[in-house]
Write a structure and sequence with these properties.
This protein is an alpha+beta fold and about 475 residues long. Helix content is about 40%, strand content about 20%.
Length: about 475
């Protein structure tokens, strides 16, 4: 196959990526069992340059290739009809460049959806529709949910997003900054800023210190701990186990307040910068983090044990919102949602991050349902607490390192990728530079891009009253999707 084999967090020469005939590329993608992590176009004069990046998770490798497509071409044979993992990628590519994938089974808009959107409909004497959103109560971001029901049972859920037209990717090309990167998706500020910084550092040929790398990973794991704890509380709130909701809520606050002491922001804003980090973790702060997380672990273990002993909690979680492993693989579900379905993908370990290679993970027995999504969060909280403590131990050996190194100029004709395992899952940032060393394209894929359709599948054949529980179990991002 015609690919450039590369690693995560690596810069390569843009001109070294093979450019192959599109029909040849289409046949290869339709037949391969390698997982697509990115599939996007870039304006290339009279043509569109299609870039594709696949993951060989077993080998920990990324494979990049490309194809030039004449702008006069208006259609091609869909890849999705042979390989369902491309269903969202092809829809986005069609929306952005107008080249139709003929035979795509569900060719709906991804973000440009407000005009003449045709919802899937069913007919029948007891069939009815329930429309929710796009405006929701409270501070929830906009999204429209159209349920096709027979009685209380949901037969289909169609999710329409794209109400926030922010132009994030274009903004990053015009005015790249850490402040913009960490503002794209507020509950994943660390993950987004880390991916952005790593991409920009690769484009500049910068090598940051070990100390900065360790502090970034400590912050990333603390973000995972905090959000997972909050979600455990939200899930229990949806099943009316209010004691659990309140206990987890208080416990989450301990974690984010510790982040506040490190960086001045509860969500870690301003901590990471291109070239390293802005704030240190000294021995005193390290001890405070360890003491806090030890208490957090104790509380989470006790509360989880109590909650899962409740018959009412278990009756709501077990066998609710099931998504089979086969369906999850077809939809290319990633992150904790994929792991809750039995797909063992985790960027931290699959792409051989040097700081995670010696960490131990317990196998997870996936049950594919709301219970599985609850338990995977609990498992990852306990593991991440252990990871933070081990990372802090490693940090002691690099106390004399600089926090940040001097920035360099972007290298012309470069292509760089950074995949970060945020708390939702695989976050992909890719950037390219032109011949003058200026950013020419910035592409982002949030894990929610993969997983929103999984939520639609989860609610099928469930009661509509189970939707809030399924929705919170997935806890997907609107802003990470509506770029």
């Amino acid at each position: 196959m015609n690919y450039y084999v590369m690693e995560n967090n690596q810069r390569i020469n843009l001109l070294d990526i093979p450019t192959i005939d599109f029909n040849t590329l289409r046949a290869q993608l339709a037949a391969t069992n390698l997982r697509p992590v990115s599939f996007f176009g870039s304006d290339w004069g009279q043509n569109i340059k299609l870039f594709v990046v696949l993951a060989d998770d077993e080998k920990g490798e990324l494979l990049a290739t490309s194809s030039l497509i004449d702008k006069n071409i208006k259609e091609y044979e869909s890849i999705t009809k042979d390989n369902h993992q491309y269903h969202m990628f092809e829809r986005e590519f069609y929306e952005q460049f107008g080249i139709k994938p003929v035979g795509h089974p569900w060719l709906k808009p991804v973000r440009k959806n407000q005009d003449d959107y045709e919802f899937f409909e069913m007919e029948g004497e007891e069939t009815h529709q329930v429309a929710v959103g796009p405006i929701h109560a409270g501070v929830i971001e906009p999204g429209h949910f159209r349920f096709m029901c027979q009685g209380e049972k949901v037969y289909n859920l169609e999710i329409m997003l794209g109400y926030q037209h922010r132009g994030v990717e274009d903004l990053l090309v015009k005015k790249p900054s850490n402040q913009l990167a960490e503002s794209i998706c507020g509950d994943s500020a660390i993950a987004y800023n880390m991916a952005y910084s790593q991409v920009m550092e690769e484009l500049c040929g910068m090598e940051i210190t070990t100390k900065a790398k360790l502090i970034r990973r400590i912050a990333l794991e603390m973000e995972r701990i905090a959000i997972h704890i909050g979600d455990l509380g939200a899930i229990l709130g949806d099943v009316a186990y209010l004691m659990g909701k309140e206990v987890y809520g208080v416990t989450r606050t301990l974690v984010i307040n510790t982040m506040l002491e490190i960086s001045g922001s509860r969500f870690g804003r301003g901590l990471i910068t291109v070239g390293g980090v802005n704030f240190d973790i000294d021995k005193e702060m390290s001890k405070k983090i360890i003491d806090t997380l030890s208490g957090v672990k104790n509380t989470v273990e006790k509360m989880t044990k109590a909650a899962l002993k409740s018959s009412t909690v278990m009756s709501r979680l077990e066998k609710t919102g099931s998504v089979s492993k086969e369906t999850a693989e077809e939809l290319n579900l990633v992150g904790m949602i994929g792991r809750s379905c039995g797909i063992d993908l985790d960027t931290r370990f699959d792409f051989c991050d040097e700081f995670y290679k010696d960490f131990e993970r317990k196998p997870f027995r996936a049950t594919n349902d709301a219970y599985s999504r609850f338990k995977i969060r609990y498992k990852e909280i306990i593991e991440s607490i252990s990871f933070v403590k081990q990372l802090l131990k490693k940090l002691e050996d690099y106390s004399q390192d600089e926090l940040c190194v001097l920035k360099k100029d972007l290298i012309p004709n470069s292509f760089a990728i950074s995949i970060v395992e945020g708390w939702r899952g695989e976050l992909v940032h890719i950037a390219t530079t032109d011949g003058e060393g200026k950013l020419s394209r910035y592409k982002i894929k949030d894990p929610s891009f993969n997983n929103w359709y999984g939520l639609s599948m989860a609610v099928r054949n469930n009661g509509i009253s189970d939707f809030p529980l399924c929705n919170k179990g997935f806890d997907l991002s609107y802003c990470g999707f509506d770029l």
